Amino acid sequence: MSNQMITTENYNTQMTLFPETEEKKLSKRPLAPTFKPYDNRQIQVIFDIEALIPEHHVARVVDEMVESVPDELLFSHYKGGGRSSYHPKMMLKIILYAYSQKVYSCRGIEKLIKENIPAMWLAAMQQPDFRTINEFRGERMKSLMDELFEAMILKLIEENYITMENYFLDGTKMEANANKYSFMWKKSTSKLEAKLREKIQETLQYIQELTQLEARTAQKEANEDPEITEQNLEAIAQKLEEKVEILTEEIEQESDTKVRKEKRAERKKWKKPLKLIRENFLPRLATYKEQNEIFGDRNSYSKTDKDATFMRMKEDHMKNGQLKPWYNVQIGTENQFILFYTIHQRPTDTRCFIPHLEKLASTSLPMPKTVIADAGYGSEENYVYAIGDEKEPRFDFLIPYGSYVQEQTRKYKKDIKMRKTGPIVKRMIVLFARMEEK
Prior knowledge:
single chain; Nucleotidyltransferase, domain 5; six-stranded mixed β-sheet; two-stranded antiparallel sheet
């Protein structure tokens, strides 16, 4: 069978076998686009702004929560008289709602109640400026915050959301908004203060060597207060000033040039310790006294935030164990509700356990039946506190000690050396040591 040659004629013939498709004819009449009516200049009346807020919106939660607070609790922080104030419930609502939207500045809150519909509804279309918001948050809200928090917890107990039976305690550290290089160390301050007191003793010795009278006075002052207080130095400075005034009068009355020169040299000797006491010793003693009061039982604080303590964080992003100003926040929870919180200046959770529960006991909230915490709170002192007296037991607790998990391992149980140095033996050694000291 021979191959058929495809010629131009045959090709054209084959192409004509397919049906011809007619091109779609476009309509000659143009169609205009359609839109929904829009005119932002038209007057619109909103009869109920609440209808624009979804049913389960956070603004409704804030509104219901604040409305449940008794008016007497809020009104007690107003002394009355003068110009009418914005209602405290309205101010609380807009601040709490702004916090839920991550808006914390007063100007941001002012902008929110002008542009955000839920904020407008909570404010009832009122528009307090940022100064009013700042005054309420900085003064009134600061004083009523603890009472407001307790009222909300009691409301949750009443509504059976929480029972205060199981109290889960844990701590977290929050970095302070302070300069991390503005640290002050108690050890360094003590060394500088000790050196200053040595200089003061040298100056007092110098004064004693000037005349026998001033030597007895200075020695008497030093013996009365070996700590060298500001009052002590102030008394000595006053006597030196009297001596300098006497010499100045004698110089003015003296006509002999040689004698005047000798008296000026003598006055210079008295002016030297007087200048040291007035311009150096007294200001520095006052500074160290103020610093020691700020330290308290701490070892450090920040100059830009004196309440913050420098702590070493294990999760530091630089992985170099850098010391930074932090706060230790202790929080008790139940059923995902925060029941109570305290802020501490101590770096370890062990030392925050007793102060936290003591502050909880001082409030109107009921004490928990059982406290649950991790091994960071396990210490002999905390266990003894939780047990309380035989007549008045405080509460049950579920707090393991530091080596509890290690003691449950097979390796630990088989190792005789580890058992001999276990936590029970260590506690017995500590107790016997205390008994011997007494």
